[in-house]
């Protein structure tokens, strides 16, 4: 039994069936890529997992507990972190503060009025935040305003914010979208390193096949709201249905 | 790229110490400005406190409340009732006012915080106007309507009578164990509360709680997906700022034991917004500065009258003088709000960060001139808030 199980999930927007009876089983410790053409329901699937959308029918189980009907912050407190397609960071704050917030969220839970202590009063919290920034290569910028970072750096910061929580599962929505080749490769290296060091389970939505084949252990191909094929990257490459549905017959 | 160095606890103690000295020495250094009389200084301290509390909500979380005057009013009425029932000691009045306004803020916040942005502002405005109208109509038994609530010699004032100070000749004045809370003692009493309020604000700004409030302003979505439940944080900030407003309202009654409904009018809510933005929203000292500037200009400009203007412009030829005076007359006396409006427009357009930002720009320019341009902007530390 996998760490995340999507069971018979359906989701419609008006007349459009975005998810059509989706079943998915993610094995712990793997990197699982979800690919498919635009409108295949990949992002909807992710949104259902993190509580942004409620499925019409079906359930999502995480470690045996249901995620459906829970608020985003509860799902995060259970150990699911999310990286967005456009980096969602606290642009008014310094990089260090950006990473302190998730660190505090782990220590103090969803709500705690700690109005008398100082943010950096506890050394171990600060050390942890600084270590993770160092780890993603942003250590020397920790006092900068995060709003001024490049897009690639923002993405790395967002990753750091997720990783510092030591989540069990990270969901990444197109982590290299709109990036230069150089930034894409840097992100691939970072994600690969993350896998070795942290052993976190990851679900990656991605268009860039270069990224998918560099990182993924398993690949699910979706089309029109349904997973059509699942397998290792090599199996996917050779599958004729995938080439038809997604790649329009082009060869990889 | 600016660097955002974190303030040290030692630095904060120095800053707070300086603030304390400046506030307590107000009767001395305000003398050259002609503002060193107690009534005005009391206003500085009270409205400063009001703005500091408002800033905890607006400056940190970005939730723009347009109904904070309601809490000021609740604090005032509670304080006067405390004078009437318990006695003229300000301490129970202040405590009760803080509790009442906090409870009231919890209720309004609970409903209003379901929405963000402009809808939140409209909801708070609606609540404040409702309170204002209720104070004039249905709640007249509590508020005494248009006349305003005042302390009478025939009121119970239980504690006063117990202490044997029940019978007083002349007007009733609040007193702290025999010390009358008017004039300079009244100012120092308010100043002490201002300092307490400021110290709490310092702590909140530097605390994990304050960091979460800033995060709410910046990106609520990210905060939710970071495992933080944002509503209770915003609610707490709302209640805290409501308590500050209640305290300020009660202090207004300590210095002058009369509460009227006009204190809850939307213009009063707007005034605290102006103070906060004028000084610099989200900064520690800005709201205090803004409150001071607005109350001082109110005092100066509203005191001018046609006669004074004629004296000032007497050197001009007759025809021109009359024209100048009639134009300038629009901006003074009753019309001083026009001046305030212009001042506010200038600040918002040219200095969106308020007076504090202006100060920062000047000090940055000075540093650049002194340093001869060396060092570069990337290592320039941000001046303290």
TrEMBL record, chain A:
<dbReference type="InterPro" id="IPR003593">
    <property type="entry name" value="AAA+_ATPase"/>
</dbReference>
<dbReference type="InterPro" id="IPR003439">
    <property type="entry name" value="ABC_transporter-like_ATP-bd"/>
</dbReference>
<dbReference type="Pfam" id="PF12399">
    <property type="entry name" value="BCA_ABC_TP_C"/>
</dbReference>
<dbReference type="GO" id="GO:0005886">
    <property type="term" value="C:plasma membrane"/>
</dbReference>
<dbReference type="InterPro" id="IPR051120">
    <property type="entry name" value="ABC_AA/LPS_Transport"/>
</dbReference>
<dbReference type="InterPro" id="IPR027417">
    <property type="entry name" value="P-loop_NTPase"/>
</dbReference>
<keyword id="KW-0547">Nucleotide-binding</keyword>
<feature type="domain" description="ABC transporter">
    <location>
        <begin position="4"/>
        <end position="249"/>
    </location>
</feature>
<dbReference type="GO" id="GO:0016887">
    <property type="term" value="F:ATP hydrolysis activity"/>
</dbReference>
<keyword id="KW-0813">Transport</keyword>
<dbReference type="GO" id="GO:0005524">
    <property type="term" value="F:ATP binding"/>
</dbReference>
<dbReference type="InterPro" id="IPR032823">
    <property type="entry name" value="BCA_ABC_TP_C"/>
</dbReference>
<dbReference type="Pfam" id="PF00005">
    <property type="entry name" value="ABC_tran"/>
</dbReference>
<protein>
    <submittedName>
        <fullName>ATP-binding cassette domain-containing protein</fullName>
    </submittedName>
</protein>
<keyword id="KW-0067">ATP-binding</keyword>
Automatic annotation (TrEMBL), chain B:
<feature type="transmembrane region" description="Helical">
    <location>
        <begin position="338"/>
        <end position="356"/>
    </location>
</feature>
<dbReference type="GO" id="GO:0005886">
    <property type="term" value="C:plasma membrane"/>
</dbReference>
<feature type="transmembrane region" description="Helical">
    <location>
        <begin position="232"/>
        <end position="252"/>
    </location>
</feature>
<keyword id="KW-1003">Cell membrane</keyword>
<dbReference type="InterPro" id="IPR001851">
    <property type="entry name" value="ABC_transp_permease"/>
</dbReference>
<dbReference type="GO" id="GO:0015658">
    <property type="term" value="F:branched-chain amino acid transmembrane transporter activity"/>
</dbReference>
<feature type="transmembrane region" description="Helical">
    <location>
        <begin position="312"/>
        <end position="332"/>
    </location>
</feature>
<feature type="transmembrane region" description="Helical">
    <location>
        <begin position="91"/>
        <end position="111"/>
    </location>
</feature>
<feature type="transmembrane region" description="Helical">
    <location>
        <begin position="186"/>
        <end position="205"/>
    </location>
</feature>
<keyword id="KW-1133">Transmembrane helix</keyword>
<feature type="transmembrane region" description="Helical">
    <location>
        <begin position="272"/>
        <end position="291"/>
    </location>
</feature>
<protein>
    <submittedName>
        <fullName>Branched-chain amino acid ABC transporter permease</fullName>
    </submittedName>
</protein>
<dbReference type="Pfam" id="PF02653">
    <property type="entry name" value="BPD_transp_2"/>
</dbReference>
<keyword id="KW-0472">Membrane</keyword>
<feature type="transmembrane region" description="Helical">
    <location>
        <begin position="16"/>
        <end position="37"/>
    </location>
</feature>
<feature type="transmembrane region" description="Helical">
    <location>
        <begin position="118"/>
        <end position="139"/>
    </location>
</feature>
<feature type="transmembrane region" description="Helical">
    <location>
        <begin position="44"/>
        <end position="71"/>
    </location>
</feature>
<dbReference type="InterPro" id="IPR043428">
    <property type="entry name" value="LivM-like"/>
</dbReference>
<keyword id="KW-0812">Transmembrane</keyword>
